[in-house]
User: Fold these one by one.
Assistant:
Number 1:
Amino acid sequence: MASLFQRRRGKATQTERVRERRHEGFLRYANFRWAKISGGLCLLIIVSYALIDVTPRPNGGSWYGYTLGTIGAGLILWLTALGYRKRKMTSDHWSLKAWTSAHVYLGLSLIVIGTWHTGFQLGWNVHTLAWVLMMLVILSGLYGVIVYSTLPAALSNNRDEMTQMQMLEAIRAFDRQLHAAAQPLTPQDTAPVLAALDEDPFAGGIMARLSGRYPHCATAAALRALGASRSSDAEAREKVVGLLSQKEVALARLRQHLRIRALLEIWLYVHVPLTFALIAALSAHIISVFFYW
Amino acid sequence: MSEPVKVAIIGSGPAGLSAASRAGQLGLSHILLEKTDHLSDTIFKYQKGKRVLATPERLDLRSDCRFAEGAREYILGNWDEDAVNNKVNVVKHAEVTAVTGQKGAFEIKTAKGDVYHAETIVLAIGTQGNPNRMRCEGADLPHIIYQVDDPEDFKDKHITVVGSGDAGIENALGVAEEALENTVTILNRSKDFARAKAKNVSDMMEAAENGFMSIRTETQPKQVEPGWLTLETPTGDEKIPCDVIVARLGSVAPRGFVESMGIEFTGPDREAFPKLSPTFESTVPGIFVIGALAGYPLIKHCMNQGYDVVEFINGNKNLTPADEKDLAAIFANLPQKKSVSEWLDYLRERVRIFADVSPLQMREFMLDSKVAYYRKGDVVFEKGEPGSSLFAIADGHAEVEVGPGITVPIEQGSIFGEVGLISGRKRGATIRAGADSIFVEVSRTAALKLMAAVPGAKRVINRISLERQLLQIFKGGLTVEDLAPVVDAAEVERVPAGKVVLTEGEQGDDVYVIRSGSMVVEKDIGGKPIFLRYLPAGSFFGEMGVLSGQPRNATVKAAVGAELIKLTGESFRKMLAARPQVREATEAAVAERAQMNNFIESRKATYSSAVDLYSDTASFIMKEGLGEATDALLIDENLCVGCDNCEKACADSHEGLSRLDREAGKTFAHLHVPTSCRHCEHPHCMADCPPNVIHRGPDGEVFMEPGCIGCGNCMRNCPYGVIRMEAAPPPKPGLLRWLLTGFGPGPGEPSPKWTKKQLGDEKPKKIAVKCDMCKGIAGGPACVRACPTGAAIRVSPEEFLSIARLQEDAG
């Protein structure tokens, strides 16, 4: 395994500094170093489990079970530390990409470590609760890995060099123009336009955000209403309709942007709280084991 | 009419006031002429409460007036007191319009028609010039201002901007920010905005379209009253509410006035200064020039010069300048002991580039330089080290390591290190002291100033650098003598970005050496220009034509504005004929390049899309100005999840301010160039930094040392918009405390709201903030370290556009 760390660099100095120039994602980091380590670990466990005859039967309470349990608990705590590592900008040399890579692959290896630790004895108790929570955390993490590797390109395509602030600014600009252009309209036509102006681009709730569907969109409603309307001056109405459809396009872009960002983030709202629940259940599991086993 | 005085001082800024105070202390008959009704108009016009910094710190103040860092009011108050205490004879409202006569009997006329007689004149009028004033009724009311220091000083006001040049439009855009809730009107006397930059005009039009300001053309102010402004419009007079009038009607630069007295400048360009003697005397005997007009924009310099110039006029020949002690410190570590002026003469005699330098200039250059003694064999710098300073050999000689075990001497009087100076690239060879030697190291800024101010020095540096560059490129036992005809026939050409220098298929045998900037080589394959190579400064091209006599086989164009040295084919061929080894070396280089061209052509058939993408990406990179970058942040948007951890890491690694904007910037094929410093080869930000605090560091980073005065020049000069003017936010509670209790703003740059709440009424000074490539942080750039997915990379263009990458991408 030592050869996997061959490329580790010497201590950073002022003149020759460590610089991340390699262009590779967290999954491919260092030629799949952590995938190899984690895969090797899983293989080792599966093979040794089959070879070692634990009496009376494989169980979390055997020496073999304790070993796996200790490794698993240690890993869980270390994997949780990523949240701290990510935010603590110390000045020494570390790469968050390497951490993420290790986090993903070692986290996946917990499926084997945790499950083989149980000796396949599952039931309705606090011990299995810890295992279930762990599996849920891993599943949510798996979702994270999938969206992280599929959605960024869509996010980039959709925003088309615009920033989120610019998207909001574009919508505000259309609102201001709409406000001026809607002045000559009849009150009957003005009402849906005013409703569209009052619309908060962030409103709509979590489901709308994630699905990207906004059935009660006031701008779309105003477009429909004005399209059907025959009152007010036709030219003025046409101008407003034109602006409304431009605003709709801008809104669609912003909503798609928010949708992809929400999809990229939503899993963290499951992954992180479940991790804390897991740590609580794990503590209960460990304490109960030592008190009552 | 008045009694003749010994010295008349024009301008009561820091320089003029200090000069008058010295005259007052010495009991010299003097007069201080100030055009406004207060002293020191430039500083008077600073916004209320602005902190004035006392840089450079190492320089001692020598003046009868006090000066230390403090608020504008404190400093102005001190000076008013000092003027009285020093018995300064000041005349306000005295705008000088003409100076006639000669030394001993000058006649000074003011706008009011008064005439003053003086034996000598000290000109301390600064560089601000006279802003043109409003001329309508009520033009002297105090709510008419002639500059906007900080748009945030205006909130919820009716503001009218008069004048439609760039300054007016920029001010109007500044105060029209939505958050300030001002009602802004801009007036233009004519129909269109012909005097302003297109970008400013389009920004203004957009702001007007969005309802942030109203534009009134063919309109001018008629009458100003408190709270109201009457306009003269094509359809008759109109009265609008108006709390503040910003008048930007242009200004008259002082140069014309100065030249009208007969004073000569060093050159025709805008940066030129009056020619001065060591005692600040101009080319007109009896007229002395000090302060910003003489090229010293810092207050402390100005005040010291005010003191010195009056001492000189009073006949003090032994006065040593205030920088004497600093200069003495520069020479202190040398083995021989000489006085400062002896050392200066010694250097001027022995070093070719200093030969034409005046003693006054010499003092200034030396302050930005180092002199060191090297024992035989000591390394001055190593190959590949970043560095942009210039070395001159005052004693002994240097040895250049051109190959393993092969050295070439550089004789006393000559220079080395000029490649870094001219191209901003890393050191091309290791240099050692060939004997016990004394070398002068001139900083990049000082060297550039030297080249601008002393034509002789410029010629010497250019010639030597060209010879060296050619020697380094062509090697093979070439000597300076072999090169003489080539160098004599060489021409320097400036090419703007995008200009084609060589066209594929055309005949030609000139050879070009890139002195600064960079080039891209393209070849037409299948009707599409395919990017072949990026040529950084220091490389050459066009040699295939000379060797083979064939038409050009690729097109070469400038990636950024560049300087080329054009060598004629004939002289080049003669040189090759004289030195067969050089011919061989050149042919080898040609073969290597041809091989790569072939490689790309062959790949084109099999991996056509990969080659196209590589080529298009290269064009995009060049279009984004990365051709002049030395180290740029790029983001692969196939990997970027938009977590902004790069920005947060940047803020947390520095003073709580992020120096990059991930989301902003252009994108091509999911390759995103965020708004962040590229550490340009020739940093635009360095061009005009009054306190000279922007430098290139040992890792190639362009960074700012403390001492920024907040003038904003660098921000305006940066074409990539990567410099912010911002005050550091107060310290945040620790990370663990935030994680556990939610106390504080969390990682990254705190919101302006939080900062404002912490600071209360305090308004800290905004200074320039830019990327320093995490200088001094052992782990390297934080933005890249903190990227969880590997989307962020830092590269130089030549690394990014290397053939290795194409091979990697092609699989």
Note: Chain B has a mean pLDDT of 84.
Number 2:
Amino acid sequence: MSPTGRVSKRHPLLSQAAAGTASGQAVLDAIRLGRARTRREIAVHTGLSASIVARRVDELISLGLVDDSEHTLSTGGRAPRRLRIRGESGGILAVDVGVSGLKVARSDMAGRILHQREASLDIDVEPEEALAHIVSLMDEVVGATAEAGSDILGIGMGLPGPVAFDEGVAVAPPLMPAWDGYPVRSYLEDRYGVPAWIDNDVNVMALGEVRAGGLKECRVGIAVKVGTGIGAGVTVDGTILRGAEGCAGDVGHIQVSEGENERCRCGKLGCLEALAGGAAIGRAAVQAAERGESAMLEELLASRGVLSAEDVARCAQRGDAACMHILDHAAELIGSMLATVVNTLNPAKVVIGGGVAQAGDFFIAGIRRQVYGRSLPLATRSLRIDPCELAGQSGVIGATWLAIDGIYTKDPSARASERRKILASSARSQAKGGNMHEDQQGGLQSGGNSQGTELSRRGFLKGAAALSAGAVVGGKMMSYPRLRVGASRPAATLGPKPTSLSMLYAGNQSDGAAIAAVLPMLKHDLGVDVVVTNLAYDALQQKTFAQLATSSPAYDIFVCDTPWTPTLTHVLEPLTPYLTNSSLNKGISIDVGDFIPKVFYDTTVYNVNQPSKHYPHAGAMVDPKAIVKNGFEILGLPIQANALTMAYRKDLFESATEKAKFKAKYGRELAVPVTWDEFLQVAQFFTRPSSKLYGTTLMAGVGDWDIDDFKTFVGSFGGDGHLINDQFGVTVSTPEAMAALQFYVDLIRKYRVTPPGATSASWDTAGSLFSSGQTAMTMNYSPQSLSSNVSGSIGYAMVPKKVTNAPHFGTWQLSIPMAKDSNTKAWAYRVIAWLTSGKAQTAMLTQELHPTRNSAFAAAHKSAAVTKSFGNFYPILQQSLASGVGRARVKDYSQVTQPIAVGVNNAASGSGSPKPDMVKTASGVVKVLNSLGYHGSVA
Amino acid sequence: MSVANEVELRLPARAFGRGRGGGATSCAPRHRARLGSDSRMAWLLVAPTLAVLVAMTIAAGVYVFWVSFYRIGSFGTGNQAVGWLNYRDAFSTYDFLPDLLRTVGYVAVSVGIELVAGIALGVSLARRVRGNRLAAALLIVPFATTPAVSALVFRSLLDPNYGWIDYYLRSFGLHQPIQWLSHPTTAWISLIGLDVWEWTPFVALVVLSGLQSLRTDVVEAARVDGASALQRFRYITLPMLTPFLAIAAVLRVIQSFKTFDIFLILTNGGPGTGTETVNLQIYRLVMQDFSIGQGAAIAVMLLVVLLLLTPLLLKTIGHYAEHERGVS
């Protein structure tokens, strides 16, 4: 650091407000480095909560650093706003100093070049003399862009020689020996009063390529410059890997040959640069000309007396065989060096720049030949080697970004104290948590984003960054990923059998009796005792959440309902490694292809970091490998699939007198309704309050049940039965939804085909009303029964439709807590794989299990015992699942959907039009979504 | 045990000192020392209670306050400090104010009815008549029943299709069934009715015990002076009962603010948000979605309301008592 009393290195506005916090930094970096373009993408990318992201973005916008006036393309729902850096918030002077030329550009904060000038320059003179030339051109550029309106905030410069980046000083540069130790940075800073950043030309080129050129999308990339010298810049996640002392990537001095004893200017023998660099090529060209191998070269040599690498490149392009041979040899040497580097770093792409690289494709081809031939197949599988995209412009663009990076990251002084804080907190969390390898993801994320730039500047590798930044305490903001104590990787093989496993299960909603019935069989097959605790719904949810929030859950297996899973994606064990490991599936027929795909994807398949996403290929047969390939995971195995089905009193529908009466009244046969119109007619027909009989039950009380009723109606009227789409558009007030609600409300209020109290009824009220013979039809989640004093029989049918059948469905899954030890998890996996197997599901049918496999449904259709107990329930359930609509995928499902439960109930129990209720509901849901950090909108 | 020894040793010394008649000076420092050890002893005796209090109440309270400034990511997503955001959201998104007003209204009405009815019940049971002792014992039944169970029973009783209440109303000539829980007014009547049924006996018992501890001579004197029964009650019994009523009122207000189970079971806040209360909202946020921070913020505000209300209540009742004393 130069001890001048100059202005802070950071952007003047960044010292203000919360943009100076770690989260502000992470958000800013995500935007300016193009890692995320919308608020939602930032949240996903940084792992910060969406509300924090929204706040930080708003701050950055109000500081004038970021702009969100542009909309991106909508993917359905409100188009999100595209965030970009406001270029006009400041200016940069970018200087690219070459051995013989100089480029100066004025750029804006978004990295765009506004004005550029070039001049020739002899670098091998006293630095004061050369710098005088440089600053005069800089002054020209400043003068020419005086009307740009924004202040110059920093200067970035690339020098053709080694630079100690932290000090801003050239160190023993072979091409400009007089510059050794000259404080270039403080010279510029003193002259312009703004901070400056100096780096060597290769790093600057690499930075240009990674931000605006060919290395843009690469996690690890290499930019090789083959000019007078040879050098390489290594980019990791958009930043330059500088190494401990700043000379990382100096590949020109790798020894490539023992035989050719050319002495390098660095003083050593056999360096790549000495054999394949510009000087060496020039020398070889002179020799070739002297030997008379090339007429073209002879001619040039005669006219100029000297030959450069560029001359060779030009002649080679024109087809001169000798030149091509010279370059081929150089390419071979460079390629063999690169092969080593590729093996070491496994880059996604290598770009080749510099004067010699202009020789064209065959030079690159020579390099490729060597690299592909010599490197590991895995390293070259998708490796690309291309010429530099920005060509001559990479220097100024890189220098621009050098300065922008410096301005937008923290002050060195602030950095030191922050680092202390990070280290202290990581020491704390290590003492607390012990095992840190789980949650590397979170650690890597925060390490990579909020601290990435600064850490790599200091030459830390990312793994180390993950450790030290695993728990970041920055400014006011506190955000550290939880350490999952005891969480472990899946076992590759099965360890000793645990004496028993404990399982938390739902008593009535997902039928604990069925599980209890097959436990002896499970014990026989797997030799493991499973102790099941059954709880009612609310208590189950509380217990499940409370247990999964601890680092050592008391249960080895949990049953989860669909609305819970989005909240739990980080604590449920991903099952793909288990499903694909045959040693864990011994004795169990896992056959994932047998699961009903729709049920499987809706229930268990999640993108762990974006739990609101639905799996894109929900029709495809279940294939764990494809799921992982698409970025999703399997978080459980489905055990009990519930769908809304209609039950009706068969005795009434088949009664001769009723049939006659119905025909007399409506002129058509009495039949089980298929459409809502028929449903209404039949319901009105059976509504006889004086004899305590009504058409149907509806469960319009405030709760999940009125939401399920409503979403079924909305879907059947052609609306989106999820009620909230994947883009967080709330679809409860669309025309289809309004029509559906109007019909639903009319059933209760206008046609009065429901027993009194429908607006305070839940699913169990509906069940008991139907059971006690008070309604002719009902819609519920499970097979119904009639109490002993009602003599009758029950038939099942799909819930009617307006335009399509869209009954609500939701499935329970069996999951394993991530925090258990690997052997327990392996055995727990075996238990849930067995319990969800075709064999077990078939065995549980008579206990009312609602299967999730096609084979179990097939067995149900064949079994006389099942048909005897449940009539045609199973065929109807299977049909309903096939056309069913699941739930919206949101965290905190109860909060988000509470306004819907209230709105539907209000509409049903009010007296006016339901429209205002739904408009209010939609905005209420959006409010909750926004408070949870989603960007909700009314669809 | 060292303290016990000290006491044993000291007693004869003091007796001896006093016996000598010149102990004043020699006793003084020893007395002071004893005070010191007494206070240490006091702390020692209080310590277990204090420890339990700190662990179970104070620490938990501080934690709730702390948590209310965070979004707690219990499931691997990390905690985030959000400043006052949870409080802001409580008002803008989670309808804290309407919920609070409804809660306060419910408390005021139900506790008011319970106090009046409790006094009436207590006074009538205070007469030493045969049967009253049995009645007083039976009073315990409603509030000894688990509220959740009472609520479930009430729900069945109120059912418009097979509930007893409707059945009997119909035998009195009612034609349309009353959908008790489907309209805000009747839903409130049901809720308050349940609460009054459950808690009036509690107030009555407090009043009863108060009446039994009162001195009867003042009432006797008034009677001799020719005061009517109403006057005796209004100007003598009631003022003397005020401290007991204060206890009953404060306890009931605090309990009533915490009422949750009967709301969940009877109405779940419905119809619409007609009977939605702060507690239901907290329950949904914390127990169903584990939005601990958001729930804590609302809980903290409810606590503040309660803390402000209790002294106010005590002061009002105290003022009333003072006033009465002045008049009589």
Note: Residues 414 and 840 of chain A are 62 Å apart (CA to CA).
Number 3:
Amino acid sequence: MTTTAMATRPRLGVRGVGALVGLLSGVLALGPALRPGYLLFYDMVFVPRLDLSDRTLGVDGSVPRAVPNDLVVALASHVVPGWVVQKALLLLVFVGVGAGVGGLMSSRLGAGAAALFASWNAYLAERLAIGHWGFLLGYAALPFLVAAASDVHLGRARGRLRLGVWTVVTALTGSTGAILGLIVTLAVLLVPTRSQPSGLRRVRLGREIGWALLVFVFANAPWWFPFLFVAPSASTGAGDSAGVTAFMSRADTSWGVLGSLLTGGGIWNAGTWTPGRSSAVVSGVALLVVLGCVGYAGWARAWRRSPAYAGLAVAGVVSLIIAGASAVPGGRQLVTAVVTDLPGGGLLRDSQKFVAVWVLLVAVCAGLLVEKVRDLGRKVGADRTAAVGVGLLVALWPLVVLTGLAWGEGGRWSAVTYPTSYTAVRDRVAALPPGAVAVFPWTLYRRYAFDHDQVVLDPWQRLLDRRVVVNDDLPLSSQVVRGESTDAARITTALERRTDVRAALQAAGVRYVLVETDQPSDPATALPSALRANPVAREAGLTLYDLGPAPRLPAGPGPWRYLGLVGLAVTPLLLVREVTATRRNVVTEELPA
Amino acid sequence: MDPTNLKLAYNIGGGLLGVILALLAIFGLVAQQNSVTQPQKYSSQINYDSSN
């Protein structure tokens, strides 16, 4: 590169601008939540140090929902405290998605505008509010995957390697990110371009798709392998059809399910809806701007510019249809059949998560619209500052229509520390003879005074370094969605009948019972007093009982249960092989004819 | 339209847009305050979809 070229190159490229906008969005959105301490609400549960247990590795026989993202957290939390890992991952969502969509734009203004919507929208706000940080990391990786798949589509050097690397990164964020990634990868690779593929190109495309699928299958083995072979009871009946109805997309605005989804909202859990979106005016303006952005991009035939845009357009629309399918007549029955009858169909439950790809499409369209506004100004003779200024004003629309996200959703998200009693009980349990721990009250969610009474998933499954048995039924205000654990179901039945509770617990390998005495308890499923005879630890809000040695349980699945992790371990070899092949091709191309 | 008028219209349009966005942001903040509900803190069962 010449000195002149280096001198004229902007200091901050499109990715840099996108990352900076994402970082500013992240700081503004998280606000007080960035203070030292843990954010504990809904499914957002981090602990000081997550152990590398069978559950973390996804091989304990339960549904591998947070695999392998929990593995990443476990490894990181052995180096730095869990709260540092949590804050770093959350900020990474904002910075990553900003940099990712910024890289899909051709100007810094467009990159900033696209990054602002991608890092400040109802999808991100609601998924953050419910604690689905793994989904969000997957969402942040998607634009990089789009760019890499586009490079492969165009036959650019090292495109395959980049696609492989980003497929692995997306896999590390968990099953949802991986599935979304597969959708965008296939869409970008398969989307027809202006030059109709010749026979040779078709063969090349087939090879590239094969490569993408190969890396996908190996990189994602840590969750699909145990899902199909280690937890077969869960995979064959992803629960009851009530779950489909309970977790289908819902209208969080006055504009129906479709209007809510189009603006990135529509999550099923009303408790996580962003304040302010219930206003018909605010959400109506958001809907109009979204339609304007997409309408402009359609009118400008933006999809013709690159396979990235065309593929993202196809994937975005497909994802929107999937997200809204369960909310339209006939669609619910179809989704129910898929979820309950097909292995892996449970991934379609809580279908609003698919709207992530649509949100990225809107972000790119917003960037294009802002670029057009600037160009229009230049065309009518406005000076550069004025044109860019008006463009910047238009770019701010995501902030205006979603003020509720600012400053930790108005202070709703605040960092807390676990009480010392938790550390004491954790240490006490670690020193006790083997045996699983059951946690009471026999329900999955808590409200702790130290956590400002926020609803949060019971943290003891992560706090303890041994098997923890909980009631995995999901209690909702309208119904209870049954969980997948057969052990938990047997214990529930015993508790309700008030007979053989000890036997049911011991049959599940439980030796210890931890009772959280500061939590509301349903007398119908309370721990019988006969089982409270031998307390071994008593701390503020916590009492630990020993039921005596449990009978030896039959051995679980053998070492073959780790095969999924072996699959992930193989992917670096695939990538190294690709690096070697790329180098060889580059050398061959550089040789004189 | 005369190019000077076009330029003027663009600048005025940009200014008006700024005012509208500012008013909408204020409206959004007020709407946000109004939509905040006091969550139910204590019940015998804590539901996944209870408000925080």
Note: The longest helix of chain A spans residues 563-590.
